[in-house]
Amino acid sequence: MLPNVLQPSATDHVPVLAAEVRELLAVQPGETVVDATFGAGGHAALLAADLEGRGRFVAIDRDPSVRPYFERFRRRAGVQARLLRGDFAVVLEQLASNGVRADAILLDLGVSSMQLDRPERGFSYAVDAPLDMRMDPSREPSARDLVNEASERELQSIFRRYGEERYARQIARAIARRRRERPFERTGELVETIRAAIPAPARFGDGHPAKRVFQALRIAVNDELGSLESALPAAVRMLRPGGRLVVIAFHSLEDRIVKRFLRDLERGCVCPPDFPICVCGREPVMRALRRKAIRPTPSEVAANPRAGSARLRAAAKVG
Ligand SMILES: C[S@@+](CC[C@H](N)C(=O)[O-])C[C@H]1O[C@@H](n2cnc3c(N)ncnc32)[C@H](O)[C@@H]1O
Predict the structure, then answer these.
(1) Which terminal CB of the chain, N or C, has fewer other CB atoms within 10 Å?
(2) Residues with CB under 6 A from ligand 1
């Protein structure tokens, strides 16, 4: 059944690592909070509650369908709240350049349950639907464009890099062969082609045979890694001294980007060890709030399997 977008329900999306997000962002009354991945507003509701009626809330999402969730949030938030629609890489950069400063910024990456559960968005391999996968339906390319227009080599590299798909070459070849007859239009056609391209025993192993290719296409269609790389420096620029940044990643490539970025800013002097004195003058910009990535507990994963691959990293701006 299609969810009713005009009547969002509290069960639409279970916020991942919610208690940890709340503890690490440690929002205080009067502060400015930025939720750069608003979704259904699950984390937002918790963080807004910590403002206790005083402060500002900025919600960002590139998906226009979050609007009814935001309207519900705004009615209940009790603080000044606004929704900025767009890629967080662009919006955070604009806010930072306009001198907007934040005390707490959250990035809960990837797709929401509502996006996965709406068949017409084409994110799911489980239902036949138009091949789309765009978080922002006004942007190009769609999954249809990529599957029909990218070269066989490009497809292979997308499947291997973003999906760690063992049979990337076979699947890319099968797609190239199939689209010479007629272009792909629907998720079901792609699932069938993937299924037929991989060896029979692999069709029954490790989850759905199309899972990794769908994940890879989604990451490529939405340029998820590119957006993250650009957003992180903008988020740090926006933070006030003492401001906190929390990022939840669901893919090892995303987590690696976050980990390297924060490690780099947590370092001070980068002079060679044999220099008698520091000549670089570099000071740490961020301080880790936890040394290691935080993973969900087994009971959270049992209650919300989507949390299974989550890794949370948190740091505060030095100052
Ligand atoms: C995992 S969901 C967030 C769920 C949210 N924390 C909650 O508790 O309801 C991720 C959301 O971020 C949005 N998103 C992902 N990448 C984005 C980007 N580059 N710019 C803006 N929004 C993005 C998606 O559209 C989706 O709504």
Answers:
(1) N
(2) 13, 15, 37, 39-43, 60-63, 66, 87-89, 108, 110-112, 135, 227
